[in-house]
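User: I'm writing a short report section on ligand binding and want a predicted complex to refer to. Could you take this sequence and WT7 and write out the structure as tokens? A short remark afterwards would be nice.
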Amino acid sequence: MPTAGSDSTSETEIGVYWKEEELIHPPTRFIAQANMADPNIFERFKEENFPECFKEYADLLSWDRYWSTTLDTSNPPFWKWFVGGKLNASYNCVDRHLRKYKNKAAIIWIPEQEDEPDQVLTYQELHNRVNEFALVLRDFAGLKKGDRVTFHLPMIPALPISMLAAARLGIIHNQVFGGFSAKACAERIQDSESHVLVTCDGYCRNGQLLDKKMDADLTVEEAKKLGSDVKKVLVWRRYPDKYLSKSPMVAGRDYFIDDLLKEFRGKRAEPVSMDAEDPLFLMYSSGSTGRPKGCQHRTGGYLAYVAGTSKYVQDIHPEDVYWCFADIGWITGHSYIVYGPLSLAATTVMYEGVPLFPDAGRPWRIAERLGVDIFHTAPTTIRMMRKAGSNEPKKYNYHFKCMTTVGEPIEPEVWRWYYYVVGKGEAIITDTWWLTESGGFLCSTLPALQPMKPGSAGTGMPGIYPVIYDDGGKEIRRGQGRAGNICIRNPWPGIMQTIWGDPERFVRQYYSKYCMNPNSTNWKDWPWMAGDGAVQAEDGYYRILGRIDDVIKVAGHRLGTKELENASLTTPEISEAAAIALTDELRGHVPVIYASLKPGIIPSKEIAEKVVANIAKELGPIAKPRAVYLVPDLPKTRSGKIMRRVLASISNSKDYGDITTLANPDIVETIRKMVQGDKAVNK
Ligand code: WT7
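Assistant: Sure. The structure tokens for the complex follow:
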């Protein structure tokens, strides 16, 4: 496998190492029941029929008012979808299913502790809870349409309830991944200008009870330093009438949600009819510069797109028990645990904990017990489950009909284990390539219509027209074995609207490189650059190679090198830092930090440990580096640019190539000896 990241092998090299894999055809049993087995779909969604083809997705929703214009391109690249239409996302995911499905499980929540009972929310129960909490947000917290509310919640039922309650009133939710630090949460509160924080007292992870309310106190403090005033902290209790946290409740600021709910028991909050273009939520994501950006997603286009892709790619029927083993704190969970499946009246399973708790059989026991038939997870989880229990799936009597992989490239070997062992050779696999920015899948096979190829993300989804450009903007055609920058030539309903508060950055980041004419209102002049390297095989299938910008994907989580470097620099002894991606068997990549010290400071284990602690504090424990090397100097170009590529080659034991043009070529050998000679200060 070639490595991903900004510091990886050259494009041609990547192409050369790629071996073609065999095609695997879907079982007839799958095709017979598939939502999309009509090959005509490719015809219906081809370019001549764009953008009207997306009516097919929008028609999966219930609209208060039908739209008049499918796509408005008058102000590129700020596309508008289903203009004139009105709808409510919460209504579409809950209310409209009551007539037929009120007694059906909407959400089944599995606590990490195996002896603790599941919580099953029927559509009726979900409706009750969403309405009651919406009233708390509206009548107690004073929030209204267009306001932002920040959630810092782990995988507990309160999270989807909170999201749907906000969506019901047009309050823009901003869920921050539960594993992110208080500081990261505070930055997102400040950037989104929210004044209400919704959190919980605690949750279970890897057999431990974690105190979440403590984080909230820190978050409020950190937000204050950034000039942001958190007026109210609303605290869900994991077990009502038990308080799991050690942190005291601050009078006039902190409130237990179960107390507040008493006033609203049985009451209803009318869903607010939203314009299709009104924002539904923000999801912050790392990019090439320091600050994470708030990807702003629209109501109509987003919901239509996730409903369509959930139905046709994940093959969700209302009868299915669907388990997306991801965190709702990421876009995967928003789109494919909450909004997609619930818009289709599915039963969506949520698991609180880690894959291997208490042992490697856990995921398969859950699948067996609940009769899960659709399973969705990330390569890093698949690798972990394979390593810890490659024969475990055989011991359990579950049967999947389809499985999805998402978040990073999957090695063909790992793919085959997923297919033959986890899927028992009975389930199709969709390898879905997409991003926080895209709202939903961009490339995948349509499972009943296209064969699978291990390690390949298939073709562009219906209505998605990818293209690969080289750095000079020349198209790299299929079958050349050469990689380039994958772009999507057209807008689609799920694409983010803009970067919250920074529309210029939106244009710069995704469009400036390949825009053909900035004055044009024709979408064909505005290819969207995803930020990934990719190769297209002769048969049209794309293989995604990983990020070409300064983003490191760690266990499927996206981290910016700049964020890691900024966090390292909060250590007073550090003068300069460079973050690079080290290839890792389980996690895909892990960060490694190279840092130089201020004059007169002597390297020590303590300083290196401080760097690790500061990164965990600034960004969260998921960002912890594997190693911190305190080096005399960082390799630099004559213009002073840090050569991360050279450092990455050293860490990954690869040839670092020609360094003669560097300002300080000698340092490279010194660093190499430190690292490969195993003299790291901290390993
Ligand atoms: C980056 C986006 C998409 C939801 C979860 C991640 C990588 C995503 C695949 C795949 C190879 C993939 C890309 C992309 N990626 N899916 N199927 N094969 N790489 O969203 O955190 O915004 O990350 O994840 O590098 O750019 P995200």
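A remark for your report: Residues 285, 330-332, 406-409, 431-436, 457, 530-532, 544, 546-547, 553, 558 surround WT7 (CB under 6 Å). Residues 1-16, 679-683 have pLDDT under 50 and may be disordered.
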